[in-house]
Specification:
Elements lengths: L3 H10 L6 E5 L12 E2 L9 E2 L3 E4 L13 E9 L13 E5 L11 E4 L3 E2 L6 E4 L9 E2 L10 E3 L7 H9 L4 E5 L3 E7 L3 E2 L10 E2 L2 H11 L3 E8 L3 H14 L2 E5 L10 H7 L3 E5 L3 E2 L5 E5 L2 E6 L3 H19 L9 E6 L3 E2 L5 E11 L2 E6 L9 H5 L2 E5 L5 E2 L4 E6 L22
Helix pairs in contact: 1-6, 3-6
Length: 424
């Protein structure tokens, strides 16, 4: 049995960013850049005005004031998207709108509010002096041609998408989203919506896992329900491994008579890197690889399954998408009440984290049994009780792992069509 930290290290050592794909700009938010982006041109591409007003020569209006206005002849109008062909000479001005290129001869802009004269006037009164360069946005002051403006590995948010658009790029090279096969195991499982025979339960883990995969930016691929029979499990695992970048199973990884997942995986030629971690809930979690593709064997208890995903699968999926820091964000918080741990095991309690004036505070969601799925629905954090303590008192400082901070790539849409029943 290994530590949580060692298990996370082993997982991340086995995954690499997926290959790049070319994606339209409208669909790259939340993705990670696979190639650096250099500006193909200066931005802005020419000197332009930052406000509506009049392009002038600063020396012409040096003595202007409300009591002694300076008269200028308006020789042209430059709207955004047009270029004035006028050359501004002594005593002249060009009416200009925000974003329009500066006309030749002018070196500054007087805002329209500091002038007198109607919108069609051919002569205006300037009421204020301005310095040369006033309200002028210089060519290349944002980006220079050839400058690397987005580094490889950059998480693409709204600002980065805006930069790509500003330099005229309709597509970006980003790491591909991982396709993740999801297989629940157990003869007792029934698909939601069907009849529920005595002794059976609805299969909830598959749907929790597929939702968490989408939250982590992946593409879930449903492999159906595997029966407690080695040949059926092997067929489904092989089918998933052939088409998915990773496979996640729930159930069948403990020490029961019908827990076959790890044995079947080894028989398929897979390397099992660990099986059992010093944690609660979720001790019988397993991780292996087959031809470089990860298999995560999560426990069947719903809370253990979801906690195992958050700790091991989520960071792996983010790393496969090129994320530099794939771990759950953590904060220090003060306990509202005492909590129990288990010496030698790292305990993860489902908690409700809140920010207050004096700092963050956290409490548990209530009963913490590994079968109480409602504790995960109520939680926005995992309270970490270290291995070296049996109990933490009220007011103790703890580390809380945030569950409500989804990656930028999180989406809400239907999962991919699944394999479902795998043919023999």
């Amino acid at each position: 049995m290994i530590s949580v930290d060692r298990a996370i290290d082993l997982v991340l050592a086995q995954v690499r960013p997926l290959e790049a794909e070319r994606v339209p700009l409208l669909r790259v938010r939340g993705r990670v850049l696979a190639r650096p982006v250099a500006a193909p041109r200066d931005q802005p591409p020419w000197d332009n005005t930052g406000l509506d007003g009049f392009a002038v020569r600063a020396e012409d209006v040096a003595g202007a004031s409300p009591g002694t206005p300076v008269l200028l002849d308006v020789v042209d109008t430059a709207a955004a998207g047009t270029v004035s062909r006028a050359v501004v000479g002594r005593g002249q001005a060009v009416r200009i709108m925000t974003g329009a290129p500066m006309p030749r001869g002018a070196d500054s802009v007087v805002m329209v509010e500091r002038t007198r004269g109607g919108p069609q006037a051919t002569r205006i009164e300037v009421l204020d002096a301005v310095q040369a360069g006033n309200a002028v946005r210089r060519r290349g002051e944002d980006l220079r041609e050839g400058e690397v403006v987005l580094e490889e590995g950059t998480l693409l948010r709204a600002g980065e998408v805006g930069i790509a658009a500003a330099v005229g790029l309709p597509h970006l090279e980003v790491h591909r989203r991982p396709v993740v096969g999801v297989l629940s195991t157990g003869d007792e499982l029934v698909e939601p919506g069907g009849e529920l025979p005595e002794g059976s339960i609805f299969s909830s883990n598959s749907y929790s896992l597929m939702a968490m995969i989408e939250e982590a930016g992946g593409e879930p691929l449903y492999l159906g329900i595997g029966r407690d029979e080695p040949l059926d499990l092997e067929r489904r695992l092989r089918a998933g491994m052939e088409v998915a970048d990773a496979v996640v199973t729930s159930g069948g990884v403990s020490a029961g008579d019908f827990d076959y997942v790890t044995d079947v995986f080894r028989r398929m030629g897979g390397d099992m890197h660990f099986h059992k971690v010093a944690m609660r809930p979720g001790k019988p979690v397993a991780f292996g690889t087959l031809a470089g593709r990860p298999l995560f064997g999560l426990p069947g208890n719903p809370v253990s399954c979801m906690v195992g995903f958050a700790l091991y699968v989520r960071p792996a999926l983010l790393a496969m998408q090129g994320r530099r820091d794939p771990h759950l964000p953590s904060v220090s918080a003060e306990l509202d009440h005492a909590v129990r741990g288990k010496r030698g095991m790292r305990v993860f309690l489902r908690g409700i984290l809140r920010e207050e004036e004096g700092g963050a505070r956290v409490r548990t969601t209530g009963p913490q049994g590994s079968g109480i799925l409602r504790s995960m629905a109520l939680a926005n954090a995992l309270i970490v009780v270290p291995e070296e303590v049996d109990e933490l008192p009220e007011g103790a400082a703890v580390r809380a792992l945030r569950l409500d901070s989804f990656p930028e790539g999180a989406r809400a849409h239907g999962h991919l069509g699944g394999i479902g029943e795998v043919a023999p």
